[in-house]
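Hello forum,

I keep getting stuck at the same step: I have a sequence, I want structure tokens, and every attempt I make locally crashes halfway through. Rather than fight my setup again tonight, could one of you with a working pipeline run this one for me? It's a single chain of 447 residues.
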Amino acid sequence: MKRDAPNILLINPWIHDFAAYDFWAKPLGLLTLAAILREHGFNVFYIDCLNRFHVKAPAQDPSVRYGRGPYLKTHIPKPEPLKDIQRNFSRYGIKPAWFREDLCAFPRPDLVLVTSLMTYWYPGVMETIRIVKETYPGVIVVLGGIYASLCKDHAKSHSGADQVVAGQGEAIILKIVETHTGMSASAVFDPNRFDTFPYPAFDLQNKVNYIPILTSKGCPFSCAYCAAHLLSPRPMRRSPGSVLEEIRYWHRKYNVLDFVFYDDALLVEAEKYAIPLFENILKCGLSVRFHLPNAVHIRGITRKIARLMFQVGVRTLRLGLETADSIERETIDRKLTAEEFKRSVSYLIEAGFKKEQVGAYLLVGLPGQKKKTLRDSIKTVLNAGITPVPAYYSPIPHTELWEKAVASSRFDLKSDPIFTNNAILPCQKENFSWEAISYVKRLARGL
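Reply #2:
Ran it on my machine without issues. Output:
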């Protein structure tokens, strides 16, 4: 630790929700900022309120389920607006007492940076910031991330943060830190060139049991339900060589076996990016596993790419089908046709992928969605020989589908992000019932 450098504490907050699970979830943006700050001479500390491997948490086997696993869960009262929902509500992550102890174990920070994810998870952000303020009175807290970007006014009014920052943080983080600590630093990376970014500071975690990888930022599509093009309006790509070196680095240093691609556009311009990357992985002879949970674009799956993905060790693959209904598709995206879906799936099966490895996301709970439409979409996926994966729709402010969602919801979506929680099926007129969830689950199992 540098004696004269400011101490910067970065925090990944709790989740407050009806359900949550670690499907390879890490705060990539926050850990990238940690790496940037460390590279520029600041003293960096990190607390993950979702830490499954906290020293006081029950032991988990990090190799089970390719690194995924359940968060520690504590039942808490439901937020007042959701008190009539007949589901248990929980804080997911470490105990508050552990969090307070961890805060006190570090030197007093000169600045605290907190990230945020789902807009409707803001109660967990509020609790996190409240305890930070109680522990370190007078310390400035800056909030960034998805909630801060999409619901900035709400975050300013409710989060408790001293400053709320929208958008990508890499280009402005040094200026933010200078404003609040007085220490200036000249950037040793180019925020406009992804290859110059340092690797995210995964080493700050208790355990490095899987690594999420971004090969690109942004998405060329503007799907009506998605905020990717709003959160990353300017696409950036890494070179295949840079991505390969990062994979090799984490594999060598921590013997990581599971790597997770979280790109919004992994297979876009595949001849220049994905194909060279997969081919170079094969040449290196790396014995690792890859997971693609973030809905790859189906149109980009050719016979060659399907074969390469299988050969490099892709074990989990999710396709962004969303719906198999042509009329419904016109309202949400125009990424592919039914014929392209069937052809791409046939390439995957031909390459050797099994049904349990390949799933197609299907949006559930869209405004005005009919049961028959959902039932037919699930049947289409089952008939193709892969697994339907229900993805419950959460209305996102500023997206094309937002106003339609507002008009169809039984809640006042604009009044409070809490009402956009996909667990309560906010765009159906009827009150929440377990029967609706059970119905979808039975369909997905082919029953």
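The CA atoms of residues 316 and 357 lie 5 Å apart. If your local run keeps crashing, start a new thread with the error log.
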